[in-house]
Specification:
This protein is of the alpha/beta class. The protein has helices at residues 12-21, 34-46, 61-71, 94-113, 145-148, 150-161, 169-187, 189-193, 210-214, 216-223, 235-246, 264-272; strands at residues 3-7, 26-31, 51-55, 78-83, 121-125, 198-204, 257-260.
Length: 273
């Protein structure tokens, strides 16, 4: 059976995606917390999913390499990766956000690229926040340093995050980090295509997960005032998109971002007009 690796796999989006991909894939859940992994593995096993867990720090390239080596152990083919691991503005300072959301994405993508082959797919979770800030606030020139000089990349994100004042620093750093995920997904499309593989990003809006609830009183609920669908999304709704993108079905879908935000960006755009 083919294997799907899900980083952040014990969270709301990751676990819901595992339930769908687990219908025809062996699942490897990656997370920092062994206790969370054990509970998620037990839950999915009861539901009939062939699942294993692995403790992985995505900011550590060696840890990510060990994840993929373990997932492929015994001759298993890692056909799909859904990279949901990340933190929101209330979960860390700008430097930590840059390292986990930005450099962590580089580590996962580069590690999988060395394994990827015909028909394989990587799906990165970005965010509607990656679309929400004016381009002048996004340090695009620093983005390539995420690969070549990660410390310089992190410093650039921290420096630019100061542009809107102390209260908004983590929020801006988060938006920059997710803008990076979208940019980096496009950047690697040709490299993945040369191996017969695909890479896509998906940008969720406000979803009813533990992370989404953490941001509820820090701007997430405000989006509902302009969104087309006046509620938080359900985990299974974003999981359906993530699992589809990771499946064999959309074989011509790569190098792009899919916005799943309940019409938030559309509402913001036409409200301004």
């Amino acid at each position: 059976m083919q294997t799907a690796v899900i980083t952040g796999g014990t969270g709301g989006m990751g676990l819901a995606t595992a339930r769908i991909l687990g219908r025809d894939h062996r699942i490897v859940l990656a997370d920092l917390d062994q206790g969370r992994i054990d509970r998620a593995v037990a839950e999915l096993t009861v539901e009939g999913v062939d699942v294993a867990g692995f403790v992985c720090d995505i900011t550590d390239r060696a840890s990510v390499e060990r994840l993929f080596d373990s997932a492929a152990d015994g001759g298993h083919r890692v056909r799909a990766v859904v990279h949901t691991a990340g933190i929101s503005p209330q979960m860390g300072a700008p430097d930590r956000i840059a390292r986990i959301n930005g450099i962590g994405t580089v580590n996962v993508a580069r590690a999988f690229l060395t394994h990827a082959g015909e028909g394989d797919a990587l799906v990165n979770v970005a965010s509607v926040a990656g679309h929400g800030f004016p381009k002048v606030l996004i340090p695009f020139r620093a983005f390539p340093f995420a690969e070549t000089d990660p410390e310089r990349f992190a410093r650039a994100v921290v420096k630019r995050s100061r542009a809107l004042g102390k209260k908004l620093r983590s929020g801006l750093a988060y938006g920059i980090s997710k803008s990076f995920v979208i940019w980096y997904t496009r950047r690697l499309a040709v490299a993945f295509g040369q191996r017969g593989a695909r890479i896509v990003s998906v940008s969720p809006g406000s979803f009813d997960t533990s992370m989404g609830q953490l941001e509820k009183d820090h701007g997430a609920s405000e989006f509902l005032k302009v969104s087309a669908i006046k509620r938080f999304g359900r985990p299974e709704e974003i999981a359906a998109v993530l699992a589809f993108c990771a499946s064999d079905a959309p074989g011509y879908l790569t190098g792009t971002d899919i916005l799943v935000d309940g019409g938030t960006r559309a509402g913001q755009e036409f409200r301004k007009r």
